[in-house]
Write a structure and sequence with these properties.
Layout (H helix, E strand, L loop, with lengths): L21 H15 L6 H8 L3 H7 L11 H13 L7 H12 L7 H11 L3 H26 L6 H21 L7 H12 L2 H15 L9
Helix pairs in contact: 1-2, 4-5, 4-7, 5-9, 7-8, 8-9, 9-10
Protein name: Mycofactocin system transcriptional regulator
Organism: Citricoccus nitrophenolicus
InterPro entries: DNA-bd_HTH_TetR-type_CS, Homeodomain-like_sf, HTH-type_TetR-like_transc_reg, HTH_TetR, MftR_C, Tscrpt_reg_TetR-type
Length: about 220
């Protein structure tokens, strides 16, 4: 996670560099991004704060822009494993809806860290550019699943389309969730999928019902 709930690390620890891990380095980097701003933090500064060398940093993260994503490849594998367990009798879009909601469910104590991470990824130009590659991995997993269900290659038009639609629904939910601390991300994503699968119904009354589902405690919608 972002590590924003950890005590601030010293900017330049003295003495023999301590051992570190992927998660610790990520936490230190995210803490520095939160305090100084992403553009104002270098790989060298993150390495110094962690008490490691630049070489060690690059052993864990190919670039600075990879750090906010954490171990995204592992998360993508988790999504793939979740979809592999879906019963064949469960409808395609219902299966995707449930899997994507569960993929984005985080423990209560990590919610604000997750919000800070997504807020950074979806606002910094360098990270937005990096997201094109990262989200492609996510879309491919969705397209692979859709392709199996439709009896065609995951790289063909319809599975690719389903992958794009699913990603758009998730990102739209992220953008609504980030500035609204009282909103619930799984509910937003579930609502986005429900709206997406019945677009015709939105102009026939369902829009108001869906908006009520995601209303904040004070009665406002995100």
């Amino acid at each position: 996670m972002t590590g924003l709930d950890h005590p601030a690390e010293p900017d330049r620890p003295l003495g023999r560099p301590r051992a570190t891990t992927h998660d610790e380095l990520e936490a230190i980097g995210m803490d520095l991004f939160g305090r100084r701003g992403y553009e104002n933090v270098s790989v060298q500064q993150i390495a110094e704060a962690a008490g490691v060398s630049r070489r060690t940093f690059f052993r864990y993260f190919p670039t600075k822009s990879d750090l906010p994503w954490g171990d995204f490849a592992q998360e993508v594998d988790r999504l793939r494993s979740t979809l592999a367990l879906v019963p064949d009798q469960q409808p395609l879009m219902a299966a995707l809806r449930r899997a994507v909601v569960e993929f984005n469910r985080v423990p209560a104590e990590a919610v604000e860290q997750h919000r800070a991470r997504l807020g950074l990824i979806l606002s910094e130009p360098e990270l937005i550019a990096r997201s094109l590659l990262k989200f492609q991995l996510w879309r491919e997993v969705i397209a692979e699943f859709a392709g199996r269900r439709l009896g065609m290659p995951g790289s063909s038009f319809l599975p690719e389309l389903i992958g794009e639609i699913a990603l758009s629904a998730a990102v739209a939910a992220y953008r609504e969730w980030i500035p609204h601390p009282s909103a619930d991300l799984p509910t937003l994503i579930d609502t986005a999928f429900e709206a997406m699968t019945d677009l015709e119904g939105l102009e026939h009354g369902s829009a108001a019902t869906l908006a009520q589902r995601i209303a904040l405690p004070d009665g406002r919608s995100p």
